[in-house]
Amino acid sequence: MKSLVLAEKPSVAREIARVLGCNQKHKSYIEGNQYIVTWALGHLIELKMPEHYDTKYKQWNLEDLPIIPQKMGLKVMKQTNHQFRAIEALAKRKDIKECIIATDAGREGELVARWILEKLHWNKPLKRLWISSQTDKAIKDGFKQLRPGSQFDDLYHSAVCRAEADWLIGLNVTRALTTKYKDPLSAGRVQTPTLALILEREQQIQKFIPKEYWTIRAEIGPLTTDWEKTNEKRIFDKPKADAILSKIEGKKATLEKIERKKKSDQQPLPYDLTELQRDANKRFGFSAKKTLTVLQRLYEQYKLVTYPRTDSRYLTTDMIGTMADRLHGMSSGYKEEVRPLLANKGKVLAKRVFNNEKVTDHHAIIPTEQRLNLGELDNDERKLYDLIARRFLALFLPAYEYETIHAVFKVEGETFTAKETNVLDLGYKKVLGKDDNDTSTAGVQNMVQGKEYTVKNSSLNQKWTEPPLRFSEADVLAHMEKFGLGTPATRAEIIERLVETEVVERQNGRFTQTKKGRQLIDLVNNELKSPELTAKWEKELEMISKGKADPKAFLQKIRRQTEQLVAEIKASDKSYRAHNLTGSRCPECNEFLKERNTKEGKILVCSSPDCSFRKRKDPKLSNRRCPQCHKKMELHEGKAGVYFQCRRCNVVEKAEERKKAVNKREERKLVQKYSQKDDFGTSLGDLLKQALQNDE
Fold first, then answer.
1. How many Å from the N-terminal Cα to the C-terminal Cα in the chain?
2. Using one digit for the tens of pLDDT, what is the confidence trace for 471-524?
3. Does 78 map to a domain?
4. Active site residue 307
5. What is the pTM of this model?
6. Residues 6+ apart with CB under 8 A from 354
7. Alpha-carbon distance 480 to 278, whole Å?
8. Structural domain span for residue 609
9. Same structural domain for residues 9 and 99?
10. Which residue in 29, 307, 314, 674 is the catalytic one?
11. How far is it, in rounded angstroms, from Cα 631 to Cα 648?
């Protein structure tokens, strides 16, 4: 008898199969003596859409809302139906004794597998592989310590509640807004309060009125000092500032006191996903989505880091013995940093990092014991790995020790201060390189309390108060985390959704509002805009995952809330004007056309919901190069079929002419390019066909 292992992706399935000794490769699975490893392609099953309950819902009508099925149904996704059928066939084999879920060890991964098994009506034993890294050792150890599937039932119930809540509220509110105001308007329990936070900052900026103020700086002895009164250095009264300046220049200042305080900064804890996304955005300008994509490669492909989608920054106590192995693994890229740590037997000085109570489903993101080969990584992968690695190395070094020195002078009744820092021990900052702000204290060392010094080179500096900055991606992530909006795994997706639906725009790394976003936030229900409401839902979902809350009660509450939200939209008397209306008319129904931005360029669509007219505003650029100027040619479709045209040279070629012979060198390049896909047993003919389709 054999065990059926269900992984989330083909790439992960390959690695598990290799470790388990499965070597009989088939199109949809890999078989061995004890195990058959198959895979999903992300989600294979999804919740039924409204039209699957009643065909009338194919047309979006306000009067049909809300759509609240008594029991939510599941359906096989059309585009991945072939893989589901393959798993179904394997599940029916008489030599299969059990299923081992090996999807990502988290809420969404649990849902991927459980929905497949539910659709299969699985009734054989169920076990769970729960690992935090993809190294051979982690996989082997994980299979030795498989857990009962029932142990994760609550996690599954939480995932179902999240999916159904998003369907009920997101779908109904989006349909209600779209049909009432006749424009695609998307809303949801996480994306709407996130949008509200971004637009609230925009309102603060718009309402901001700059005020003029002055600061006074003067040299006293060897120090540069600033005027200060009750911790305020700004003077908003120009005559007052002039008066202070005129009475202190050339006068004697008495050093009233010197305060010295020894301080220490503890080693920073390792990253969770959200903080890593924030730091990568600040340091490298990475979007949250890009960080997660690169991180996933480091986890799955290179096996260099532990599970990415974690909200914990702590490690479990049973990991203490693995620290030296992890240092050995990364030593090839960090020889100078690692050598003294290994000499100290890999002893972690930041002992507070080991805290079982603060580890949720997964511990913090840290390097694995896999041997590091920096040459294999591209530039983005190196940058992200370096952030994780240096945070990890900091755990083995002492705290950062320093001394702050605060000098206070009195001159003609006014107070001037100077603050400096004296570094005692760089500690963990040796590996983080964060000593840029540390300053020398040579000026203060020889000064004597009570002694007088001459005031020189005093100056008045005019400044203006500045509005708060627009949110960067790091800011948005920080606020989402603060208010409990979404999870580490979903926040990047939510941010991208806001950009794709054109309710915010990215400009110079910061988010700005759009006319559509400003109008949408005014139309949407007040309750849905509140971060507190969504945070409350997330907390309830977490309680459900721990078996401390009732999933049925949660979904009943969501159903009542859906009815209320739709009723509010129906009763609203607010108006809306599409932000992207053009002056052009639709050739089919004479309504105004709208201009939309898509990944393929700008398109024109009819503003009437009953009309399906759409056309490209700008011709699509193909991968085909002009034989004369070698620029990319435009792709057109005419009466004679698809053709390419160079705008510069006016060269025209039919699409069929592209299907020419491929020489050996090109053949090798094509095989190398396309065989990296997650398909097994792809022939060269299929690869060439795929390449030609891609080119055209």
1. 48
2. 999 999 999 999 989 889 899 999 999 999 999 999 999 999 999 999 999 999
3. yes
4. yes
5. 0.81
6. 314, 315, 316, 317, 319, 320, 348
7. 11
8. 581-653
9. yes
10. 307
11. 8
